Amino acid sequence: MVFGQIVIGPPGSGKTTYCNGMSQFLSLIGRKVAVVNLDPANDALPYECAVNIEELIKLEVVMSECSLGPNGGLLHCMEYLEKNIDWLEAKLKPLSKDHYFLFDFPGQVELFFNHDSTKNVLTKLTKSLNLRLTAVQLIDSVLCTDPGNYVSALLLSLSTMLHMELPHINVLSKTDLIGNYGKLAFGLDFYTDVQDLSYLQNYLNQDPRSVKYRKLTSELCSVVEDYGLVSFTTLDIQDKESVGELVKLIDKSNGYIFAGIDASVVEYSKISVRQTDWEYNRVAAVQEKYMKDEDTED
User: Fold this and answer.
1) How far apart are CA 122 and CA 26, in angstroms?
2) Containing H/E element for 169?
3) For position 139, which CATH number holds?
4) Could you tell me if 145 and 97 are in contact, meaning their C-beta atoms sit under 8 angstroms apart?
5) Contact 102, 31 (CB under 8 A)
6) How far apart are CA 157 and CA 160, in angstroms?
7) What is the pLDDT of residues 151-189, one digit of tens each?
8) CA pseudo-torsion sign 242, 248, 253, 256
9) CA distance 90 to 69
10) Helix 117-129 vs helix 147-164: crossing angle, to nearest 10
11) Fewest CB within a 10 Å sphere: which of 26, 127, 156, 291?
């Protein structure tokens, strides 16, 4: 039985940064981690990549040869991966014996709530490699500062959960930066618990720009509440305790904690008993320097 995470979310939500920090954290507590890059547009990876989709197909080549834009090109790449799933299975099979997988996906949200190729790829991998996966959907916490954006994030999360049909955890990322974007209308627990959106509707009604969308907003909030599926946990990827709490949630959702209870206890004890050599800040600094060097060359 093989365990892992699929990391999804809109552009800028921090997926690649998450994979970088999460892979380090899991390695520090004793897991062998294989990061699988399935984003054909991600050519500046801060982590060591075990499998890279660019060996199979590249977005820039697809855009050039097929006269497609970035969105159409990404859809084409996922459809091509689905047709060539044997390539990915062959790459993953040797690693599946003793590795924990992190799948880094593109930020195009259509791939996860109304397009079938990504879902089909994961379904085939689950069956062929006996995978137990959890979908970790990152939502930039800055969206909480605008009620309209927050409602959009709720709808995206709900749609993805229903479409992907996987154990699913919604995460408000970059919570350490949320104070930089203005004051929240409510406490953070209001946005994580998603229990009574009528308060949000009252707040939206105070904005003259949203008056004509009042009924639509009300109906959308009702849909989210009627399903009762959406909630969020918070994450500061630079904080060991924050990452550790998220790992525990993920392990419960995909069954890792029940597959090897004794091993899990040992892993978690490493977090609480001793200081781990957390190198996220150093690696992030190297990535930032790399990006600045690229800009200078351009």
Assistant:
1) 22
2) strand 168-173
3) 3.40.50.300
4) no
5) no
6) 5
7) 999 999 999 999 999 999 999 998 888 878 778 888 899
8) positive
9) 30
10) 50
11) 127
**pLDDT for residue 70 is more than 70:** yes
Residue located via tokens 């009300």: 218
Tokens at residue 123, please? 């379904």
Q: What pLDDT score was predicted for residue 286?
A: 45
User: H/E/C letters for each residue in 75-131?
Assistant: HHHHHHHHHCHHHHHHHHCCHHHCCEEEEECCCCCHHHHCCCHHHHHHHHHHHHHCE
| pLDDT tens-digit map of 84-139 | 999 999 999 999 999 999 999 999 899 998 899 999 999 999 999 999 999 999 99
Read off the amino acid at residue 220.
L
Mean pLDDT for the chain overall:
86
**Considering the entire predicted model, what is its pTM?**
0.86
Q: Domain limits at 218?
A: 2-297
- What's the number of domains the chain is made of? 1
Give the side-chain half-sphere CA count within 13 A for 184.
Answer: 17
Residue bearing tokens 């994979």: 19
Q: Are 221 and 200 in contact (CB under 8 A)?
A: yes
Residue whose C-alpha is closest to residue 287's, from 25, 21, 53: 21
Integer CA distances (angstroms), 226 to 41, 158, 231, 250, in order: 37, 11, 13, 25
Residue 70: which of 62, 79, 80 has the closest Cα?
A: 62
